[in-house]
Amino acid sequence: MSSRLEVTEVLHLKIYFTLKQKDMVTASRNSSRLLFIAIIVVTSILAYRGVLEHDFINYDDPLYVTQNPAVRDGVSVRGFHWALSSTVSKHWHPVTWLSHMLDVDLFNLDPRGHHASSLLIHTLNAVLVLLLVQRWMPHGWQSLLAALLFSIHPLRVESVAWVADRKDLLATFFFILSLLAYSRYAQRPNGRRYFLVLLLYVLGLMSKALLVVMPLILLLLDYWPLRRVGGEGIRDLPPGLDTGPIVRVTWKGAFAEKLPLIGLSAGISVLAIMLQESAGNLQPLDTVPLSLRLSNGLWSYLWYIWKSFAPVGLTVFYPIQIIFLWKTVLALLLITGITLGVLWFRRSHPYAFMGWGWFLVGLTPVLGVVQVGSQARADRYSYLPLIGLCIAAAFAISDAVARNPRVKSGIIGAVTAYVFIMAALTREQVRVWSNSQTVFEHAIRWDPTNHIAHNNLGVYLLNHRQTEDAVSHLEQAVIIAANYPEAYYNLGCAHLGAHRIREAGNAFSKALALRPGYAEAYNGLGLTLYVMQDFPDALEKLNKALELRPDFVDALVNRAAVLVAMERRDEAVLSYQQASEILPNDVGILENLADTLVETGDFREAAGRYSRILQLEPGHPQATKSLQSLLEGLGTSIGDQSTDRKATDE
Known about the structure:
Layout: H1 2-48, H2 61-66, H3 69-72, H4 77-85, H5 94-107, H6 111-136, H7 142-151, H8 157-161, H9 166-187, H10 191-205, H11 214-223, H12 251-257, H13 259-278, H14 290-309, E1 318-319, H15 325-344, H16 350-363, E2 375-377, H17 385-403, H18 408-432, H19 436-446, H20 451-463, H21 467-480, H22 485-497, H23 501-514, H24 519-531, H25 535-548, H26 553-565, H27 569-582, H28 587-600, H29 603-616, H30 621-634, H31 638-649
Antiparallel strand pairs: 1-2
């Protein structure tokens, strides 16, 4: 009896200490995870905190936020419907629109809040990269290194510092969440877990169509690190992957389970191409030949790799340029050589196979074979594809340390130095994005032939009343790119601001010759004719602008001014009312509408508009004076009006 009790006690002790050891391992794992997350959060904030003092820039930020009436109204039922149906940016990304609307609700148009949201999402993405790698190797430091290599790098600055690139941040956020969900699905496949992967993927596609490549990346993960398919002979990497029990499948089965995801990818791809084609953004082959597109795509692969090591000369826009034959041949040879190498060593270095494949596949949609716009490449395009290389680099460094313990300190020192150098360069690159002037002057310094930079710098200078300097840059833009209608339009605005009416008309006409459906140019030409007091022709051009863009507020306001000049005030009131419905809180439109209502004799309606102005801007001098005069004539006072309104509100 005694002997049996002793054996039982021993067994209990073994079980106790086994459970205790597991608890200690779990506690150690959790503490290291929290430490790693803290490091990622702190380093990310330190590297990018400068964006919190930045302004919006005049390159797509007006389209996405500052001059977008739907976004400026914030989140609402109407805004939600608009986000689901809008293709105003020639992209379908309702989640991105809703993100900007939420920022407006939280921060109005204070750029600091919008930048803070972008920094928060980027930081979350870095943390998710860490958690993704920790799911595969929970005991290793590879997760921290992969997350740092991804997060702290100048190539990431454009996506963080440019409010309009929120779509890349959001798409990557849902993409990594999808990979985490897929890792759980691989351990125990079932419908619920697959649905979660599908849902997150849909949200990612609704942020940016770039995620059409995700099914192929999932197949790469099936090979390594999940080892669901073709994993025979893959060696373990110290201290060993820990993906949990994985249900193995055949390549055919792995592909078949991706079919719903592939169907979504195909549908979004077709939609994206149709939207870009309808907008005239797809460059024809006679403008950008197929040979140049292929050469540019091949060279871009090497460019992104090189900039990962030497991130200098990064700018907001890279014009398409002729790629010399030797560059094309070099790129083809190196890409082919690397691809064959990772295939040959895929069992001994599976991380290289996965990372290189992720990089190649991730960049495919943005290489320019289907050329959208006139950019050759962009820093933001590397945001998602380089995650694969960052993960592969972390495992390669870990592998090198394990294979060569003698050089461990040297490798660690080199990696640490690289991270610190990238952090310093990142902070410098953040300063470049302070405002439109800094970002485009920086671009021109690196490439004086950058027509986009000259154009947008000209717009910035024009808005800051530096008209002659603006004209100089805009003229340079049209010299560099003679078929650039936006630059001609902006040049027309600059000439109009300088009262060079004939030059303004010529510039607007040139813009229309290059783009016959250019609503902004019709509006500019209509305004020019208005200044010349050619009211019938001015009205014709403004009506044409509104045929092309019925919600074009500037054209509505300008048409109303022309109608007032033609003494057609009732029609002018209707035009101002249309503009005010689109921008209900625009004080300038309300004031013009109220003044015109007074001229038509509709005093009560005018008084209501002046009251609305005072709600938006208490103490507005002109509105206060005009409303007082109207109310005295109507036998009441501002105080009575306020009391009545308050009682009604209650």
